[in-house]
Amino acid sequence: MTKPSAPTKPALAARSVRPGREQIMAAIRIAGIAEFSEKGLAGTSTQAIAERAGLTKPQLHYYIAGKEQLYEELLMSVVADWKGIFDAGSTDPGKVLGDYIRSKVHLAFDKPEVSRIFTREVLDGGRNLDRFWPDSRKRTREKVAAINGWIARGLMEPVDAHMLLMGIWAMTQFYADSALQVQQLMKPGQASWTPDRAKLADELSTLILRGCGIARR
Amino acid sequence: MTKPSAPTKPALAARSVRPGREQIMAAIRIAGIAEFSEKGLAGTSTQAIAERAGLTKPQLHYYIAGKEQLYEELLMSVVADWKGIFDAGSTDPGKVLGDYIRSKVHLAFDKPEVSRIFTREVLDGGRNLDRFWPDSRKRTREKVAAINGWIARGLMEPVDAHMLLMGIWAMTQFYADSALQVQQLMKPGQASWTPDRAKLADELSTLILRGCGIARR
Amino acid sequence: MTKPSAPTKPALAARSVRPGREQIMAAIRIAGIAEFSEKGLAGTSTQAIAERAGLTKPQLHYYIAGKEQLYEELLMSVVADWKGIFDAGSTDPGKVLGDYIRSKVHLAFDKPEVSRIFTREVLDGGRNLDRFWPDSRKRTREKVAAINGWIARGLMEPVDAHMLLMGIWAMTQFYADSALQVQQLMKPGQASWTPDRAKLADELSTLILRGCGIARR
Amino acid sequence: MTKPSAPTKPALAARSVRPGREQIMAAIRIAGIAEFSEKGLAGTSTQAIAERAGLTKPQLHYYIAGKEQLYEELLMSVVADWKGIFDAGSTDPGKVLGDYIRSKVHLAFDKPEVSRIFTREVLDGGRNLDRFWPDSRKRTREKVAAINGWIARGLMEPVDAHMLLMGIWAMTQFYADSALQVQQLMKPGQASWTPDRAKLADELSTLILRGCGIARR
DNA sequence: GATGAATGAGGGTTCATTCAT
DNA sequence: TATGAATGAACCCTCATTCAT
User: Within 17-76 of chain B, which residues have Cβ less than 7 Å from strand F?
Assistant: First the structure.
């Protein structure tokens, strides 16, 4: 506002008062997520994170314990976004699965970096996800139980619940992880198809629900 | 690999004291695919490739021009596996799509590293895929045309062809890319569900075909 | 050097425990000039420069962007020394040429490394001198015009101006580039001839001026 | 003549019969002189020499003891070209010096690589010229004596003989060493001055002889 | 708190030379 | 003889991290 901000502190320059620890940490997290999702753990340098957060390298190390620690922390925070978007308690499979697909599509479009970090981590072997799996397994079991319940009550065709969940996961994740692939495949003179998130969510939802033999809700 | 090969020894002496150039090159390719699929381009060291191929680091450079060149070559060879498994000429959507899904599932189980390298490359921005996209786009257009043709003839429900193809891609790819995720989710005392490839291919096929409103063939 | 300097300490504390950035940069430049002039660009290792400057190799890279960049910078700085020692505006050829010869001889004796770096670069093809030639050509044209003017006014014999300038260049440069050759040729018990710079400048000047038919000024 | 020659053996491909040792050595010498004069000792790789000579690297090492040894040998052979072009026995300074200048100019134009190797070696410290200096000094002493004799007899002005010899050396050498510099300085729209060797030799000769006060012969 | 500087390890690559065939 | 392969040293450079001010 008063003076042109120094170009070295992009993420923090707006406020001329000394930014508090929390604000710096937030800037670091944003920078870390951006870098890790673009380049991966090995490909990201602390230098790049520091610059993106408007800090020097030693300054960065004042706030974080190390590259790997920051990565782990971000990974855990990232993964929390997927909690609770599957309403295992409902009795309407069409609504539950439809909402689940829609939520995942919107998450993929809203926070693609988050999804990409997770996919990278899984590709890397998932060694930093030890704390994630137990909880994830538990929630998966609940979902599987719900689906099998619906099948038992004749509300849907007898599909394999694990396969169904993973299929939904893979399809919805795809639009975050492969943004580039999607663009490249559509590129020249193919203006007919743009990944409109609302339409996409509907299409996907329809495909899956019909595939499960669930009547359009 | 730039440097020309000249197999001086006949096949009879193949198992002689010194492994021939072809065998060493093969070992390097295998090592490269393994390393790149596990760690990615940035995370892989020539040291690691060399060790895995049973060579020293400078020895490796006797056979390859550089890390990036090896990577590009492997990436291109890897990508060739996906050509021609979609029979766009047929008039039976159930057979074509079913075979396509089955082929992709088998590829994912047979050569998971191959798929992982590709997924990593796409996450990294796909800068090394310049030569791949044009051909890929062409084949995608053919598939889309075939699907739209089937829809026009009332052979299947009016689903978005691009979405359908990407969905199939994502689902089938998933079992290669996320082998670990799958295992972790199933882990303890969950012997009930193992990713049996034949069963999986059938389940997926059924789900998708029913989702497209294609009568069981 | 790309990275910006920020001398935080006042001149008072200049001689403190840690040498300032400017002093380190100066040490690097001196070391670089010495090494490059002795061994050439290809023959010089960053190791050698670092040691000569009292640094470790990675430390050196903290201050410079790379060997070639350092070389280019030094080359350009070196070349600046030759500007403006030819007074093309004067009407007294004897004075102008005499002063020019004297200045070049003194430069050759004062900064022989500078001259050697330049000569090496020319031998190497001069690919790093792209920015130097245009200015150099312009100044050469001015000198040629001045000489031809003197000839037209009958102030000197009709010598080829380009040849004269190059001859002067070559003769004066020689004592920097071939310091060793000179010493070797004079070596044992030949105390009779030492390259006394003042005497040499006079002798050269006399030879050339007489060769041009310019009366002793 | 019969079949197109294999591109890997440029220097030897013409004769299909196995080339003799002498021919291979000649090819190596030519290749070595070319490479060393372009890149210097440090900048030249045995690979480059081998390729230029139409050999493989190990083949090259079968014929030579090492890079440095080849270099030394070439340096000595190269230096021999300068012997005997100064006729110290004559009594006509104009003819002797004029012929000397002319010979050196022609050598510089005929075999510029030779001159460049020597200049590089002197810049490098001349450590490989140990065997050259004694003889060179002897010949220099003879030339100095001749010149001083002419001066004593009033045949020329009393110039410093060493300076004169070095000046001639430097001027004539210049056109070999700095071919590039010469071209660059003349470059655009300066067609007026081309380094015609005959004219140049005359101009230089005239300049120096007049500078020595020797009447035009 | 923040900054310039330092450090030690490692990464990719090239090279002169030699070995085994 | 000639060739593919091997070797060990070195070289340029980057990085994560820490120190001293």
Answer: 18-21, 24, 55-59, 62
Model pLDDT, residue C84: 74
Backbone angles phi, psi at B3, to 5 degrees: -65, 135
Q: Give residues with Cβ within 8 angstroms of A178, minimum separation 6.
A: B119, B122, B123, B166, B170
Residue with tokens 């670069």: C121
**Which of A203, A201, A13 minimizes the C-alpha distance to A103?**
A201
Cα torsion at C53, C56, C61, C62 (round to 10°)? -90
CATH topology assigned to domain C19-64: Arc Repressor Mutant, subunit A (1.10.10)
Chains D and B touch (3+ CB pairs under 8 A): no
Q: Is B194 near strand F, with its CB below 7 A from some atom of it?
A: no
* Amino acid, res. C100: Y
Handedness of CA A39, A40, A44, A48 (dihedral sign): positive
CB contact under 8 A, C123 and D116: yes
Distances (CA, A) of C56 to A34, A162, C19, C26, C36: 34, 58, 15, 16, 18
What does the block give as tokens for B65? 């021009």
Tokens of C140: 């050469």
Torsional sign, CA C37, C43, C45, C51: negative
- Domain locations along chain A: 19-64, 76-211
> What band does D26 get if pLDDT is binned at 50, 70 and 90?
very high
Quote the minimal CA–CA distance from A214 to chain B in Å.
Answer: 10
pLDDT of amino acid C92: 92
Using alpha carbons only, how large is chain C's radius of gyration in Å?
21
Mean pLDDT of all residues in B95-124: 92
Per-residue pLDDT tens for C106-150? 999 898 998 999 999 999 988 899 888 888 888 888 999 999 999
Does residue A71 register a pLDDT over 60?
yes
D172-197 burial, b for 16+ CB within 10 Å, e for fewer? Answer: bbbbbbbbbbbebbbeeeeeeeebee
**Touch between B and C (at least 3 CB pairs under 8 Å):** no
* Topology alike, domains C19-64 and C76-211: no
- Beta carbons of D44 and D31 less than 8 angstroms apart: no
* Between residues D42 and B217, the one the model is more confident about: D42
Q: What would the 3-class secondary structure string for chain A be?
A: CCCCCCCCCCCCCCCCCCCCHHHHHHHHHHHHHHHHHHHHHHHCCHHHHHHHHCCCHHHHHHHCCCHHHHHHHHHHHHHHHHCCCCCCCCCCHHHHHHHHHHHHHHHHHHCHHHHHHHHHHHHCCCHHHCCCHHHHHHHHHHHHHHHHHHHHCCCCCCCCHHHHHHHHHHHHHHHHHCHHHHHHHHCCCCCCCCCCHHHHHHHHHHHHHHHCCCCCC
Span of A81-90, B147-156, C23-32, D16-25 with lowest mean pLDDT = D16-25
Q: Which of residues 100-159 of D touch C (CB under 8 A)?
A: 116, 119-120, 122-126, 129, 133, 136-137, 140, 157, 159
Helices (H) and strands (E) in chain C, counts: 10, 0
Cα(C116)–Cα(D197) distance, rounded to whole angstroms? 26
Instruction: Name the phi and psi angles at C36, rounded to 5.
Output: -60, -40
CA distances from D46 to A188, C22, C45, D52, D57 (A): 50, 41, 19, 10, 7
Q: What is the pLDDT of residue A10?
A: 44
Q: Tens digit of pLDDT for each residue in B157-182?
A: 999 999 999 999 999 999 888 877 77
Task: Render pLDDT for A113-124 as a digit per residue (tens, 0 to 9).
Answer: 988 999 999 999
A122 vs B contacts (CB less than 8 Å): 177-178, 180-181
Average the pLDDT over each of A44-53, C30-39, D128-137 and give the range with the smallest value: D128-137
Give dist(CA C107, CA C89) in Å, integer.
22
Architecture of the structural domain at D76-211: Orthogonal Bundle (1.10)
